[in-house]
Amino acid sequence: MSIVRIATRASALARWQAEHVAGLLVAAVADLEIEVVPLSTEGDRRTDLPLSEIGGKGVFATEVQQALLDGRADIAVHSAKDLPAATPSELVIAAIPQRGDARDALVGGTLADLREGAMVATGSARRRALLADLRPDLEFAELRGNMATRLSKAADFDAIVVAGVALERLGLAEQIDDWLDTETFVPQVAQAALAVECRAGDSDTRGLLGLIDDAESRRRVMAERDFLVELGGDCSLPAGAHAVIGDSGELVLRAVLADSPGGHLVRGQLSSVESVNPGGELAIKLRALLG
Questions:
Q1: Is the terminal CB of the chain with fewer CB neighbours within 10 Å at N or C?
Q2: 239 near 256, Cβ under 8 Å?
Q3: Which stretches of the chain score pLDDT less than 70?
């Protein structure tokens, strides 16, 4: 019997993600034994500061990736949105399983019915920029922590914004008051997708993870990550990108970029019919529009 050790963050949502990947692997190869290796990351420990002040996306991924590099784990399961655009050369994203619902969601009220000057809490600059664009009257407060922490603080504000899929995966979808459509409220790059990494030289594990890779989800996520790469990796500007696959197989990427959470915001769209690298080209166009 083979044993596969899965490194993951220790939060309830991260554990769900790791167990989900474990289930996919066992369904593909029946004689696997899975061991989950939960880890604490800097992003989990430092909830007192905005992500931009403690290192951006990498604060959720670096310590989990290190478990792969030093041999404590065979694979690492991440929320794909938490991965910096550049993957360490020693590692590879070997699987992106079927993606979930990428929409953001409001808890506490609907966007249309929030009172004038309502206080909305979120730790995301992208979410603030999009909300300010749609409702310039809104006020904002910082909100970080795991999902249980965020929900426990929801009553302190008129609404909070979260990734709807997180509540779905935790069995808390009934908490959602409003789903925000992806065309208007463009999600974070790779939101609702999982990224499963392994060591680049581990051909056996790469082959195993290939069994749970979803080609359409990978195509969408990689186009969105190309957008982030062109912006400069872990871009500190409010930015989002979301790709869909059309009926004829073309990829359509929508993206948004702002110069600050309440500042100038630009939107764009590009398809794989128009460009071989819609993510990179759209990032260049939106950056030029911002000046």
A1: N
A2: yes
A3: 1, 41-60, 233-235
Q: What is the pTM of this model?
A: 0.91
Q: Which CATH class is domain 2-97+193-213?
A: alpha beta
Confidence at residue 22, expressed as pLDDT on a 0 to 100 scale? 97
Contact 132, 261 (CB under 8 A): yes
Tally Cβ neighbours within 10 Å of residue 246.
11
The SS3 of residue 278 is helix
**Which phi and psi (to 5°) does residue 116 adopt?**
-60, 130
What pLDDT is attached to residue 56?
A: 54
Catalytic residue among 44, 74, 82, 158: 82
Question: Shortest CA distance to 99 belongs to which of 189, 19, 226, 198?
Answer: 189
Instruction: Report domain extents, the chain.
Output: 2-97+193-213, 104-180, 215-291
CA–CA–CA angle 12, 181, 289 (5° rounding): 110
Q: Which two tokens stand for residue 195?
A: 């990224």
Residue 74 a catalytic site member: no
Q: Which CATH architecture has domain 215-291?
A: 2-Layer Sandwich (3.30)
Dist. CA 77–CA 197, nearest whole Å:
7
CATH of 104-180, one of 3.40.1160.10, 3.40.190.10, 1.10.260.40, 1.10.1200.10: 3.40.190.10
- pLDDT tens digits for range 106-121: 999 999 999 999 999 9
